[in-house]
């Protein structure tokens, strides 16, 4: 399993909304300035589908991050299963007016775990910067 996390200096409700609403997802869901997410669809309910299209801005690479929600606890937990059968969880823990966000997921077999960990951590770091600046 791969884990990435960060402590966000914002109220829990804001962190949850910015993580789950497509109009925000397209603004933070990338690991670096040369990537972006031009499309984000999110049906936030158990059995609901999500799909984020992630692209290199130069057009050299693209992939879809998509799956189904398997468990949701508002303002606390999101569990999902990707269409390649890997599972993941995102935890939102309130700590002294801040929110610790932790994502844990099964790695892909074709890509090194360290690269996947760095990618996910960079996305969560970008999320933190976006939320705290908004």
Automatic annotation (TrEMBL):
SUPFAM superfamilies: Bet v1-like. Pfam families: AHSA1. Residues 9-132 form the Activator of Hsp90 ATPase homologue 1/2-like C-terminal domain. It comes from the Bacteria. Gene3D superfamilies: 3.30.530.20. InterPro entries: ASHA1/2-like_C (IPR013538), START-like_dom_sf (IPR023393). Belongs to the AHA1 family. This is Activator of HSP90 ATPase. It comes from Flavobacterium limi.
């Amino acid at each position: 399993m791969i884990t990435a996390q960060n402590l966000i200096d914002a109220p829990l409700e804001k962190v949850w909304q910015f993580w789950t609403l497509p109009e925000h997802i397209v603004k933070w869901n990338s690991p670096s300035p040369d990537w972006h997410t031009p499309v984000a669809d999110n049906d936030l309910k158990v059995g609901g589908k999500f799909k984020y299209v992630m692209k290199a801005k130069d057009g050299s690479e693209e992939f879809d991050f998509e799956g189904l929600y398997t468990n949701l606890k508002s303002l606390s937990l999101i569990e999902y299963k990707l269409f390649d059968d890997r599972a993941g969880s995102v935890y939102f823990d309130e700590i002294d007016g801040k929110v610790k966000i932790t994502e844990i997921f099964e790695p892909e077999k074709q890509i090194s775990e360290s690269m996947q960990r760095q990618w996910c951590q960079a996305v969560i770091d970008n999320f933190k910067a976006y939320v705290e600046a908004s």
